Amino acid sequence: MDQMQNVYQTPTGQIQQGSQGAIVRGAGWSKFIGILYIIGGALYSITIFYAPIGVPMVFAGLRIMKGGEQAEMYARSGDPNQAVQAMHEYVAGMRILGIMAVIGFAVGFVILAVVIALAATGNLDN
Asked: Is there a domain that residue 93 lies in?
C-alpha cells in the first residue's frame, strides 16, 4: 500500500492520470446503474411490505447517479474537486447498499435458523 498513492496524497493535489480515465469511463455506467436502482426501489416501494427495501435503494441510486453526473462534470472541466465529489457520492451510495446487504444476510440467517429449529422439533409438518 505504501507504493500506491491516492488522490489525497498526490503532491500537487491533482488526480493521477490512470484515475482520471477510470472516473470518466465509469460516469455513464454509474448513471445507468443509479437509474436502475431508483426504478427498482420505486417498484419495491409500491407496497408497504417492501418499502424498507425500496426506499434505501432509491437513495442509493440517487447518490450513485449523482456521482456519475459529478464525474461527467469533472470530464468537462478537469476540476479535481468534482472528481473527489464524484467519489464521495459513489462511496455514499455503496455504503447504503453495503448496509442493506449486511441487514439482508442477517435477516436471512435468522430465518434459516428459525426454519432449522422448527424442522428439528418437528413443527414444520403440514
From this structure: yes
Tell me how far CA of residue 122 lies from CA of 7, 26, 108, 111, in angstroms.
Answer: 58, 52, 21, 16
User: pTM above 0.90?
Assistant: no
Asked if residue 106 belongs to a domain, the reply is no
The H or E element that residue 72 is part of is: helix 51-77
**Cα–Cα distance measured from residue 13 to residue 68, given in angstroms and rounded to the nearest whole number:** 21
**C-alpha–C-alpha distance, residues 78 and 71, integer Å:** 10
Contact 82, 69 (CB under 8 A): no
- Give tens-digit pLDDT for 101-116: 999 999 999 999 999 9
Torsion of CA 71, 74, 75, 80, to 10 degrees: -120
How many Cα atoms within 13 Å fall on the side-chain side of residue 30? 26
Residue among 112, 100, 10 at smallest CA distance from 56: 100
For residue 113, is it within any domain? no
